[in-house]
Amino acid sequence: MIGWRQMESTPEFGLNRFDWTSTEAFAADVGRAEELGFGYALIPWNPLSRPDPYMQLAVAAGQTSRIRLGLLLDNPVLHHPATSASSIATLDEISGGRALLTYGIGDTAVRWLGLRPARVVELVEATVLAKRLLAGEEVQIGAVRPARLRHNRPVPVWIAAGGPKTIEMAARVADGVFLRVGRHPENLRAAMARVRCGAKVAGRNPDTIGIGLIFHTVASDDPVDISAISRSMAAGYYEYSPALFEIPGLPWNGPPVGELKRRVYPDFHHAPDLVASGNLVEFLDDETAGSFSLFGTAQDIAAQLRQAIEITGRADIVVPHPVPMPRPGEPIPRILRSAPVGADYKTWFATEVMPLL
Fold it and tell me: What is d(CA 124, CA 16) in angstroms, rounded to the nearest whole number?
């Protein structure tokens, strides 16, 4: 089990964007992330756009020694919980105890297949079942005999959540929760209140529940790019979690998001041209646009992270999700000096931002 640090400690940083041109390139990229000081290599799961994550992570495990490896995220729509538990237990054995399983409702990966994302109750059932199987318990699932994972391993099971109900549920049943609520102080405070509420309902100590923070991080420091991309990110949160606008009282003074969605594929977070999708929502004011992303200079981003962690009280894992998605080997589009010159995103973040925290 991952041990949680005190709130004054520096969080571990995780990456969920790597070189996917080949499995060999991916494993080498994870190795480079380890050398740069990242603590987690996390892979999204979309069978139409990415190779099998469990297989790729197994290869990376053989070429690394410290970095933790896992999914961000798997879902109970595409995988039965027993399948996920079996795969993550195998990865944990191969990596010497470095695996992490994170569940979510599915979103893009599920919608691309014409399927419905998991409901909260289905996410609860999948998480509980995966945890029990990984603990080696016998579980009644309606088969002739109880189910038991014979190669069980004590792998932590987290949930990635944005909506208030899902966050509270995650605190009831998961080992940790990745908060996907942006960085507005009111949303962060509300999310932590939901964590404490869910823990109380389940009779758990909230300090034993891992806290992860996921932030879309604008790779460019061009003000024009920042303005448009941060608005696209804000619209993406409204698209899937309108409560994140309601809680802090942020306005949506444009057309219904359903109308705009017909002009953006697959959504405002994953559009191929985030500047163009951001320009569709120019009606969002600066406060709203700045409430969901990290952006600016390395000093700006470090300050934004420090403020977020002060509000949540602690963060065990921070995932600075780069947008747009970096191209393997290409330098990020920084106007100001990067160190070293021409650095790609992971090198830039590790050398410029991480030392400031």
Answer: 24
Of residues 53, 47, 38, the one with CA closest to residue 344: 38
Helix axes 298-312, 185-201, angle to 10 degrees: 30
Q: Which residues of 327-341 are buried (b: 16+ CB within 10 A; e: fewer)?
A: eeeebbebeeebeee
Q: Which residues have a Cβ under 8 Å from the Cβ of 77 and sit 6 or more positions away?
A: 105, 106, 110, 115, 116, 117, 118
Report the pLDDT value the prediction gives residue 149, as an integer from 0 to 100: 95
63: three-class secondary structure by DSSP: coil
278 in Cβ contact with 260 (< 8 Å): no
Three-class DSSP category at 349: helix
How many angstroms separate the Cα of 110 from the Cα of each of 233, 325, 331? 20, 20, 32
pLDDT in tens, 15-24: 999 999 999 9
The Cα–Cα gap between 131 and 144 comes to: 21
**What dihedral do alpha carbons 131, 156, 177, 196 form, nearest 10°?**
70
Q: 217 phi and psi, to 5 degrees?
A: -120, 115
Query: Whole-angstrom Cα distance, residue 165 to residue 116?
Result: 18
Residue 9 has a pLDDT of: 63
Predicted local distance difference test score (pLDDT) of residue 314: 94
Give me the CATH code for the 12-356 domain, please. Answer: 3.20.20.30
CA distance 304 to 318: 12
Residue ranges in the chain whose pLDDT is less than 50:
1-8
Distance of CA 200 to the CA centre of its chain: 25
Residue ranges of E strands in 30-146: 40-43, 68-71, 99-103
Cβ neighbours of residue 80 closer than 8 Å, sequence gap 6 or more = none
pLDDT of residue 150: 96
First-to-last alpha carbon distance for the chain, in angstroms, is 25
List all residues 6 or more positions away from 24 whose beta carbon is below 8 Å from its beta carbon.
59
Rounded Cα gap, residues 50 and 56, in angstroms: 10
Within 10 A of 56 (CB to CB), how many other CB atoms are there? 22
